[in-house]
Amino acid sequence: MLNGIEGVSTASGSVNIAMYVVYGISIGVFSLVIGTMFYFAYKYSNKRYPRNKIKNIEHNTPLEVVWTIIPLILVMIMFYYGFSSLKALRTIPKNNMEVQVTGQMWSWKHKYPNGKITTDLYVPVGKNIKLDLTAPKNDVIHSYYIPAFRFKQDVVPGYTYYAWFNATKKGVYDIECAEYCGIGHSAMLAKVYVLSQADFDAWYNSDKKTPFSKKSNSKLTEHPGLTLIKNNGCTSCHSLGTNVLVGPGFKGIYGHKVKVKEGGTLKEVLVDDAYLKESIVEPNKKIVDGFSGGMMNSYKGVLSDDDIKVLIKYLKSL
Ligand code: CUA
Q1: Ligand 1 center to 95 CA (angstroms)
Q2: Domain that holds residue 181
Q3: Ligand 1 centre and the CA of 235: distance in Å?
Q4: Which member of 22, 171, 185, 263 has the greatest number of CB atoms within 10 A?
Q5: Residue 195: how many CA atoms within 13 Å on its side-chain side?
Q6: Which ligand 1 atom sits nearest the alpha carbon of residue 179?
Q7: From the CA of 51, how far away is ligand 1's center (Å)?
């Protein structure tokens, strides 16, 4: 979770400096004000300072000039470092790889120039990555935040924004949603995997969904369907048990009959392969009674037919 806390993008250096400068000045001013306050409280305490010696000072021009000029200089220093770090974050280098990012309730989707789509982001180390960020028109405001790269960009539905980074260190870092966007907000997380150019190319030019699709020893015991569920953010809204989050829990649904609403009419359907597949590809067609539609976006193109088969196989086993 604290991976990359030191800042691991080319722009993070200037953001760090801006933070230290503002932090340093704040500590200095705070100490000065509080220190002076304690000193005066001691020196001019009622016990030590005779009342008849108190004078009412009306003006001190040199002092007033000093306490105007010094803060002005401090604010200009903060502005300088703030502005130069903002400039580093907003000036996008020409040679870049462009990734389309969509934020929707409650997951992120990354689409690469060659059409690959992933929920986590995979990038080569030391390359300029430009992000085009958007949210579907009927969605809500999200904010794409990678603390390790020191940038955060609000995403308002229907508009496109941009951000960029150049990661300087291989590793896995957090992607968060930094704008409260409803019940699944806290689960709207993803990872950015910064890979070596060779590892990235090997994946990018393969037909693997993710660079870790087929190896990863630690996941040997995990059902591939469960991996898909985790990687696609399904568990933000569906529990693997019977408890209800945003949508129904997955446990025990297969083979049972449920009441669903289709186009306003209530009907009963059997939860089988065909129904589950339909619900993944067209999630708003048949809504289970008691739930509201429009909460889930289609996974068409995100999950292949084979993925869906594996996923359903896993749901069957629950
Ligand atoms: Cu999306 Cu919070």
Answers
A1: 30
A2: 97-204
A3: 15
A4: 185
A5: 17
A6: 2
A7: 60
Of 90, 115, 150, the residue at which a domain comes to its end is: 90
Instruction: Using a pLDDT cut of 70, give the percent of the chain over it.
Output: 97
Ligand 1 pocket check for 155: Cβ under 6 Å: no
Q: What is the mean pLDDT of residues 195-210?
A: 90
Q: Which of 204, 231, 248 corresponds to the end of one domain? A: 204
Q: Using an 8 Å Cβ cutoff, are 193 and 172 in contact?
A: yes
Q: Which atom of ligand 1 is nearest to the CA of 186?
A: 2
Regarding the beta carbon of 195 and ligand 1, being less than 6 Å apart is answered: no
Q: CB of 142 closer than 6 A to ligand 1? A: yes
Q: Would 181 be classed as within a structural domain? A: yes
pTM, full prediction: 0.69
In a domain, 172, yes or no: yes
In this structure, are 83 and 105 located in the same domain? no
For tokens 């260190």, name the residue: 169
**Same domain assignment for residues 114 and 176:** yes
Q: Does ligand 1 have an atom closer than 6 angstroms to the CB of 177?
A: yes
Closest atom of ligand 1 to CA, residue 185: 2
Residue 314 Cα, ligand 1 centroid: separation in angstroms? 28
Whether residue 215 lies inside any domain: the answer is no
Task: Identify which of 149, 161, 45, 29 has the alpha carbon closest to the alpha carbon of residue 88.
Answer: 149
